[in-house]
Every structure is written in structure tokens, then in C-alpha cells.
Amino acid sequence: MGHVVITDLCKEFVERRASRRHMNSDPDTHKSDRMLVLDHINLEFSDGELVCILGPSGCGKTTLVRIIAGFETRTSGSVVIDGKEVQGPSSNNIFVFQHSGLLPWMTVWENVSMGLRNIKGGDGAARVQEYIDVVNLTGFENLYPHQLSGGMQRRAELARALVANPETLFMDEPFAGLDFLTRLKMREEIINMHEFIRKTVIFITHDIEEALVMADRVVVFSDLPATVRLDLNLDIGHPRYFHEDSELEKMRRGVYEELGVHYAL
Questions:
Q1: What is the pTM of this model?
Q2: Helices (DSSP H) in 21-106: which residue ranges?
Q3: Per the domain annotation, does 194 fall within a domain?
Q4: Can you tell me the distance from the alpha carbon of 23 to that of 26, in angstroms, rounded to the nearest whole number?
Q5: What is the pLDDT of residues 160-187, one digit of tens each?
Q6: For 5, phi and psi rounded to 5 degrees?
Q7: Parent domain of 145
Q8: Cα end-to-end distance, the chain, whole Å
Q9: Which of 13, 108, 213, 225 might form a disulfide with 36, Cβ 3.0–4.6 angstroms?
Q10: pLDDT classification of 265: cutoffs 50, 70, 90
Q11: Count of CB atoms within 10 A of residue 15's CB?
């Protein structure tokens, strides 16, 4: 499961401000500034797709994903996951944020076990160990977050998300702050993990090459108000390599051009 349908989705942010003449007067005299962030977004993500969302900084990528996950309300339109309209957060949809969410006073094992708190029955210990193994943290179960590298912390968070068996996994720039080689290794981890679990993954990134190397599908947003500029299906096996005149290289140049970069890269 994890079939996502987004129909005519709009999001406005409203900021109320008081005019100088009425700073201390009745709140009804306050004025509102409206900013359209998402402008009639229409997308459909299939069960088991790994979708990367690209776009300029501040264009509304995170807002979209937070709305799909139920953490943010929409202004209009609808979001439906597996036939049910999203009304709020669900244990079937797990969010991995930009910054580490591991609890520092808990070991890797204990942090991963937190993902089981809403799951009843089954062999919890075996399940925790399975996903620790999947993210290659076997042998590090009893270490605390401060004893792990940045990449290992990200993998522990991923294991905690996976152990909950979500239908949809949301990842908001999960490699932020990692060094270049660790990012490359984490890309491989996500690709391998996705092959193993085949869950729907919606992944936000600013890195065009990262998106094209990892994703089944790449969605490119415009600047504010965000619209869908490009929607690419990548029917290309892994591993993927960029080389002159390859289909992947042509896609890379096309994405750069959609984002306003017109010289050869």
C-alpha cells in the first residue's frame, strides 16, 4: 500500500499584522498578508514508488510533504492515501526529518524499539534486530547517539522508521549536514532499503544528481507559488551512472534547465 493522490492542492500562508494607526486597537483592524505557496498541485504516486521532489529553496517542497503526512493543513484541494482522505498524522505514515531525532539518553536498540510503540503482537526483538541489520548497524546496538557518526545516526533513524512498517515514508533532506562520501553511502543504503521493503518513499532533496541516481520518479517544482514544472519517470536500473549522451545525463541537463541553469554542467 501507499498509493497517494493529490488533487488541486493549494496552500496559502496568512500573516496577520496591525497597521501603525491601530497597533493597540481592536484585533479586527488588523490586516492580513496572504502568500500562495502551493498552486493547484496534481500528482499521483504509485504503491512502492521512490519519488524525489526537487525545487528552489523555499519553494514549498517541505510544506507539500507535511500536508501529505498530515502535519500541515491545506487551504483547498485533497490528499488521499490508500483511498482515505488525509485528516491528520497517521502511524501508517512515518516522517524522517532533516535533523537527528534520536533520543540521546537511549541506545541504538532502544531508539529503534521506539518505532514499535504503536504495534501490537509479534516478536518485537526480532523485528528490531532485522531492521538494525538492514541499515548495517549490527554490532552497534548498545551505543548511544553521541558515539555514532552522522551517517550512522541517520541509519538508526531510518531503522526506527522502518520497524514501524509504514505504508509511506517521508524523508525531508535526511542527508543534510553529512559529508560527501557519507551522502554517497547513504544513497546506496536508501536504494538497497527500498529494494528490500518496496514501500512508497517521498524524498525531498536539493541535489539533482542524488535524485536522478536514487528515484523511480523525480518531480521538479517551480519557484513560489509552486507548480509542477517537470515530472520524470526513470525506468532505469541500478546502479546508475552519468556519462556523455546517456539518457540519465540528458535528464540531468533538462532538470537543471527547468531550475533556471542554462549553461552546460
A1: 0.83
A2: 61-69
A3: no
A4: 9
A5: 888 888 889 999 888 877 788 888 888 8
A6: -125, 120
A7: 99-165
A8: 38
A9: 225
A10: low
A11: 9
> Can you name the residues that pair with 232 across neighbouring β-strands?
218
Residue 51's contacts (CB-CB under 8 Å, 6 or more residues apart) are 45, 200, 201, 202, 203, 215, 216, 217, 218, 219
The structural domain count of the chain equals 1
Give domain status of residue 213, yes or no.
no
Does 62 reside within a domain? no
- Show the beta-strand stretches assigned E in the chain: 4-17, 31-45, 50-54, 76-81, 84-85, 93-96, 168-172, 200-204, 217-221, 228-233
> Is residue 188 one of the residues assigned to a domain?
no
Instruction: Summarize pLDDT for 85-127 with one digit per residue, the tens.
Output: 999 888 788 888 777 778 999 999 999 998 787 555 567 888 8
- Report d(CA 263, CA 242) in Å as an integer: 17
